[in-house]
Amino acid sequence: MKRTKILFLSLMAVLACSRQAGTTTGSTPEVEARVDKLLSQMTLQEKIGQMNQISAGGDVAQYAEALRAGQIGSILNEVDPEKINEYQRLAVEESRLGIPLLVSRDVIHGFHTLFPIPLGLAATFDPELVEKGARIAAIEATAQGIRWTFSPMLDIARDPRWGRIAEGSGEDTYLDARMGEAMVRGYQGNLADSTSMAACIKHFVGYGAAEGGRDYNSTYLTERQLRNVYLPPFEAAVKAGALTLMTSFNDNDGVPSTGNTFVVKDILRGEWGFDGLVVTDWNSMGEMIAHGFGEDRKDVAEKAVKAGVDMDMMTYGFLSHLEELVKEGAVKEKAIDQAVRNILRVKVMLGLFEHPYVDVAAGRAVQYAPEHLAAAQKTAEESAILLKNTGVLPLKAGVRMLVTGPLADAPHDQLGTWSFDGEKEHTVTPLKALQARFPGQVTYVPGLQFSREKRERFDDVLAAARHADVVLAFVGEEAILSGEAHSLADLNLKGSQSELLKALRSTGKPVVAVVMAGRPLTIERDLPHCDALLYSFHPGTMGGPALANLLFGDVVPSGKTPVTFLRTAGQAPMYYNHNMTGRPFIGGLLLDDIPLEAGQTSLGNTSYYLDYGAYPLFPFGYGLSYTTFAYSDIRLDKGVYGKDDVMGISFTLTNTGNCEGTEIAQVYVRDLVGSVTRPVKELKAFERITLAPGESRTVTLSLPVSELAFYGLDMVKKVEPGDFQLWVAGDSASGEALSFKVK
Ligand code: BGC
């Protein structure tokens, strides 16, 4: 008897330990006890109700019955704080168990105060600043009752035709992971605080690899690509404590994510021990029927719950069919309990049971707070990338400017995609900022009213240009041309924008192009028509003052490309960290070099395009400054490292120009021989360094050798010993390689 008791107690201890060990959300035994207690009081119908998320809006009364009956666990898309309080009141005060709702919204790059789109955030290479922006977004959104955002989007995107490239951090796994962690920390802050907003890492997984860049399309990622490239940012964000995760729309190798047991159950829950909430994307459960992966809603509901999905966004599949599936024995009530536990855990951890309501007046007061606008402006400043400058920038204070182009005064469009709650009345456009700062020096002739407009002649613009010292042409994309469901096959400037630049060039006046866009556009044909080009992914509410500061040198550009800029869309996908081919590019004939009726041969030929060569327009990590930087004395503290060592990398950076500036120093590594082919280079560290003119600084960075681990032939993550190369440089295409070994 005694022995059984001891055995039982040890078993309980092991179980308790394993639960703690599997906690990525930071849940405590107290939280678990509360969740279990509540769960034990719930009927099956009430449990299933928690697993149902609906898009609210309109009249609250229409949902009153469902709320009283406990049929809704979460709502999205209601932002009116008074209505949110009313939803909560019905759930908390009129349902049997009084469980509060999780109120959610796509707060993607700010709530009211909008920051640059996420691709622009990534261009800052400044996780601290990005974390601050996410914190501000959370302060504004939670003040209106929103406690769950569907952000950050961690999809690696290597094809700029895909409109949703705007919503993520670009093509690189390492940069994406750092940005993702920063946003999770920023949104969630201190969970016990009422300004904490649950992050939702999405879209799990591989969605950014949509075939041909066509949104919602199939992906064909191998397990190795998933593990080495697409999954690490999610794993990093889970480790940073992300409370929730969203499954994606795409099917990978035939299996839609919302029914993908391998990625959700085996990897996310099993390998990473994720104990947060998994929600579907909007009707992605229902879309498994369209995919041909399930017969009807009942079938897909079964597949989703079995894959490990906890909450159904907008399919009503769980609400309509789970009870029946449990009664038939197809789904075990234990699986439902687990899902509901994951949902209730988030509600308890956010303190919703204690504070379900929001103070409406106080909430309004924090929107667009001066410190929020200042942070948005600083972020827009850090995110702009200088891609060309023949010396015309920075501008001198007294210049007479012609401001032109469809994005010069486009308060809606400069906010970018996913800016539902941004109000264009609060946007400061470049035109407004320049007029306010330089009264009497600005002439404005738009030339084109919007980015797609076509026009034959620009007489009015050209006449005005003749009276100006400099032309500032704000071109790019309207917000609606990127984002979800907005893929493009042609990435040139739309409408007659290129013609406008060309015409302006003919005046002989210096032309500065500022591009505001949701993706890296193919601007090669426009470069010869401007003396300087500043690329600003849609910069948000304070884009205008930020760009004015950059143009006049109050702030020196420091952003770097978070994604490769292509010469033509036909090069996509093209990214810096591709695997080494058997015939790496070493130069070769181009289209016009090929003799007529040349005989067929492939001998000596390498991997490139006959018409566009092997290189992009601008590589990953690239960006100019108003000053210049030199790297010297790049050293490693050893030549041979053990697998548990931490590498010491040092270098001296010198500001060789005439003004203060910030450089983003980047460390790349290549593993020369692997059990499988390896990327030609991979970003492993970066550092923002600000130097006065003439100043030199020796910088030391630490890189644990364990960071060189990858999934090789045996699909086990480890560092494979051998020879490596390392670069420290200002972009992914520069620098001299150093060699080292790992034994
Ligand atoms: C998008 C998600 C978004 C959801 C809710 C979907 O269409 O793919 O990213 O969070 O809608 O608005």
Helix-strand layout with pairing:
Layout: H1 2-21, H2 29-40, H3 44-50, E1 52-55, H4 64-68, E2 74-76, H5 81-94, E3 102-105, H6 118-123, H7 127-142, E4 148-149, H8 173-188, E5 200-204, H9 223-230, H10 232-239, E6 244-247, E7 251-252, E8 255-256, H11 261-271, E9 277-279, H12 287-290, H13 297-307, E10 312-313, H14 317-327, H15 333-349, H16 360-366, H17 370-383, E11 385-389, E12 401-404, H18 430-437, E13 442-444, H19 459-465, E14 470-476, H20 497-505, E15 511-517, E16 532-537, H21 543-551, E17 629-636, E18 640-641, E19 646-655, E20 661-671, E21 682-691, E22 696-704, E23 710-711, E24 717-718, E25 722-729, E26 738-742
Parallel strand pairs: 1-2, 1-10, 2-3, 3-4, 5-6, 6-9, 12-13, 12-14, 14-15, 15-16, 18-26
Antiparallel strand pairs: 7-8, 11-16, 17-19, 19-22, 20-21, 20-25, 23-24, 25-26
Helix pairs in contact: 2-15, 3-14, 3-15, 7-8, 7-17, 8-10, 13-14, 17-21, 18-21
The chain binds beta-D-glucopyranose (BGC).
Task: Describe, in plain words, how this protein is organized in 3D.
The chain has about 750 residues and is an alpha/beta fold. The protein is about 30% helix and about 15% strand. It has 21 helices and 26 strands. The protein has a six-stranded mixed β-sheet with strand order 11-16-15-14-12-13, with helices on both faces. Strands 4-3-2-1-10 form a five-stranded parallel β-sheet. Helix 2 (about 30-40) crosses helix 15, helix 7 runs parallel beside helix 8 and helix 8 (about 175-190) runs parallel beside helix 10 (about 230-240). The two termini are about 55 Å apart. The structure holds beta-D-glucopyranose (BGC).
